Amino acid sequence: MSVSGGAASDSITGGGGNDTLSGAAGNDTLTGGLGADTFTITSTAADTDTITDWGVGGDGHADVLAGEAFAGQTLVVTIANDSTTAFSAASALASNGVVSVTGGAALDSITGGGGNDTLSGAGGNDTLNGGAGADTITGGTGSDLLTGGSGADTFVFDANAVENGEDTITDFVFGAAGDKLNFSAFLSTPAFYEVSGTGTTIGADGVAADSKGAIALSSIHNKVVLVTTTNIGTQAVSEDTLFSAFLSPKAFAAEGTTAIRSVLLVGETSGTDGVKVYYVTDDTGINDLNVTLVGTLSGVSLADVDAANLWAAA
């Protein structure tokens, strides 16, 4: 079945076969249904089109995005929970338009176009690539593989370690004109602890190797802390290795009874061995401090960290 909309805002639904749906002008909603459907972008205005069920039906239902977006056009895509079909806007939105894609519960593969796209993996261990443009990328639950592509991209982390999983960001760029880390679901303010310095330097045993000594947990509450080490590959990061116990001073003070939240960026001061991202939580009880790995920034060090690498306050 082949169906094209008119000049108004249409709602078009395919059948159980391999359909071709085209919204034409207007803010159209396209639902392919089962089958390997082709969604063709043919608008000649800055409209917003929506695809509601990309890849629904799983194996054998490989949908296709065709056509070319108009300048200013927005495409909103929801990937079906059982989809096994990769989504890519690299061709249809290479030069014009932006795409906003929300993944399903499965292992999604999502590629943006040339605009400032918004990609969200939702459930599963997803692979997201923003392509060109200043993209906003959220892995969601699962251990996701995230690539920003060209442009100053923003990588969004979830509210807690369980929801976030352990993501890998393949091409993060530090520096004033680089990418951004967004921890706003976990921290209430975008602030570093001593971003102009090194935060704190630790030895292999987790003891502060500089003059700071054990840093009070209240000092790092709602802050991103740079923790430098000589070997990120062997550096242990946990409550036992970094937080003081009785007669065993470490880089940070022992847990207390005041709730705190903090993010640690642990890495070397040069080289390309990567930076690891940890969530630190301490609640009001006893023995409730947790240090959890939530991400890895591949191929970088802490050498060029800048205040601009955090999200902007709302």
What this model shows, in words?
There is one protein chain. This protein is mostly beta strands. It has three helices and 24 strands. The strands form three sheets. Strands 9, 11, 13, 15, 17, 19, 20, 21, 22, 23 and 24 form an eleven-stranded mixed β-sheet that branches. Strands 2-4-6-8-10-12-14-16-18 form a nine-stranded parallel β-sheet, with no helix packed on it. The longest helix is centred in the middle third of the chain and has 4 residues. The chain is elongated. The mean pLDDT is 94.
Question: Which helices and strands, and how do they pair?
Answer:
Layout lengths: L1 E3 L6 E3 L6 E3 L6 E3 L6 E4 L6 E7 L9 E4 L6 E6 L7 E2 L9 E5 L6 E3 L6 E3 L6 E3 L6 E3 L6 E3 L6 E3 L4 H4 L2 E3 L10 E3 L9 E2 L6 E2 L15 H4 L2 E6 L10 H4 L17 E8 L7 E8 L6 E9 L17
Parallel strand pairs: 1-3, 2-4, 3-5, 4-6, 5-7, 6-8, 8-10, 9-11, 10-12, 11-13, 12-14, 13-15, 14-16, 15-17, 16-18, 17-24, 19-21, 20-21, 21-22
Antiparallel strand pairs: 22-23, 23-24
Shape: elongated
Specify the number of helices.
3
Major beta sheet summary: 11 strands, mixed
Task: Count the E strands.
Answer: 24
N-to-C SSE string, H for helix and E for strand: EEEEEEEEEEEEEEEEHEEEEHEHEEE
Task: Please state the structural category.
Answer: mainly beta
Mean pLDDT metric? 94
Q: What oligomeric state is this?
A: single chain
Keywords:
single chain, 314 residues, mainly beta, eleven-stranded mixed sheet, 32% strand
Gist of the model:
The protein has 314 residues and is mainly β. It has three helices and 24 strands.
